[in-house]
Amino acid sequence: MNDHQRATDPLREPPENPRFVSRLTKETLALIMAGGRGSRLGRLTLWRAKPATPFGGKFRIIDFPLSNCMNSGIRRVGVLTQYKAHSLIRHVQKGWNFLRGEFNEFVELLPAQQRITTSWYQGTADAVYQNLDIIRGHNPQFVLILAGDHIYKMDYGAMIARHVESGADMTVACLEVPRETAKAYGVMATDESGRVERFTEKPEEPDPVPGREDVALASMGVYVFNTQFLYEQLIQDADDTYSAHDFGKDIIPRVIETHQVMAYPFRDTETGGQAYWRDVGTIDAFWSANLELIGVTPELNLYDQDWPIWTYQEQLPPAKFIFDDEDRRGMAVDSMVSGGCIISGGVVRHSLLFSNVYVHARAYVKDSVILPDVEVGAGAVVKRAVVDRGCRIPEGMVIGEDPEIDAERFDVTPGGVVLVTPEMLGMELHHVR
After folding, report:
1. Any binding-site annotation on 219?
2. Where does the record place the Glucose-1-phosphate adenylyltransferase/Bifunctional protein GlmU-like C-terminal hexapeptide domain (predicted)?
């Protein structure tokens, strides 16, 4: 397509702005599924929903799909909540209330409230079904369904444009993943045009990509629906007493037999290769994805001014590093340190510190992710750990050097990462999670 075609195509912006911000995105309602417990994260989600989990030094996981919506020009968003949603609700209210209702822009919280049935949300499809009256009230042309617990940057406008161009009833965003790991996802088989021919939730033998026996197409949990088609499928599914009321398990496998369901490969717009996407659903994955950000040129660029990640954070002073004695030097090397932190004569190496972390004299932190409001006592050692919000590591405590001792007090993952929470330290909770 040449520049003249781009300039006159109603689906696109002028060539100087390649984003697909258009009447299509303005006619789209996004629904973020943010009610999940995230049980694989263990006690990290004991008091918070997975989408409310802090990530990247100052953000929460929910900020990534919300920011993608804003950057894509989608300004009508519903956030569906259920499990221990207090901190998630507070975060959205504080950080995402800048849209103007006068312009029909909003981020609405949609808690499970038994609007249509007498049960809580029973599955992803049921969660949307129970808000049908609200969706109808907004009268969107397209409905974009998003998982609220993944880390990625994506222009949803491009996907919606492809959905319209292909004449699809539904479009499913997909990733290329190794076949051995594809068993954890919904896996698609497509024809040459990208039409989905099979969809299997967590298969034992994932279908390979044609010509690439070691790769499979996995669903991202990102779907575009024509609105009327969505209504019809949700109502039909709600009447099916044998259904689990889930998009991946029930609706997609059924509709591919009779309707046009297309796959949308999620690719890097510059290289054409697989774009960055992380499911931080385990402590090992969460730890690894956070520490990836410390690298010189990480795949996820949080300093990208063209695609900023928005969030709410307290107004905090800059990080401070104090004392420069031989045995008491406040320093951080190969690390990310957020506002409000004080490194008071301790050493931090290859670690990520969220806001308001205090590292006392002669303490040593290495290869660790330290969530907000943590205090590391004098002479303490913390290695290869995830330390939850509000923890007070006692003076001289050693974490991450002896797996057997760690396992007696804390949770140790298969990858050897130690999870430390206030409860494990015998503390009472005083923080909003």
Report:
1. yes
2. 317-420
Indicate whether 7 belongs to any domain: no
- Cα 407 to Cα 332, 396, 399, 413: the distances in Å are 28, 18, 10, 9
Q: Are residues 330 and 408 in the same domain?
A: yes
pLDDT, tens digit, 9 for 90 and up, residues 245-280:
999 899 999 999 999 999 999 998 778 888 999 999
- Burial category of 236 from C-beta neighbours within 10 Å (exposed 0-12, middle 13-18, buried 19 and up): middle
Q: Would you say the C-alpha torsion 243, 88, 336, 155 has a positive or negative sign?
A: positive
Sign of CA dihedral 98, 101, 106, 110: positive
Q: Which residues of the chain have pLDDT under 70?
A: 1-21, 115, 117-118, 428-433
Give yes or no: residues 41 and 115 share one domain: yes
Nearest to residue 287, comparing CAs of 422, 431, 414, 404?
A: 414
Is the distance from CB of 248 to CB of 219 less than 8 angstroms? Answer: yes
Burial profile 298-337: b = 16 or more Cβ within 10 angstroms, e = fewer: eebeeeeeeeebebbbeeeeebebeeeeeebbbebeebbb
The residue segments making up the domain with residue 162 are 18-293
Residue 281 shares a structural domain with residue 388: no
Three-state secondary structure call for residue 265: strand
Is 119 annotated as contributing to ligand binding? no
- Residues 283 and 385 grouped into a single domain: no
Tell whether residue 344 is among the known ligand binding residues: no
Contact 93, 86 (CB under 8 A): no
Residues 6+ away with beta carbon under 8 Å from 2:
none
Model confidence over 336-381: pLDDT tens digits?
999 999 999 999 999 999 999 999 999 999 999 999 999 999 999 9
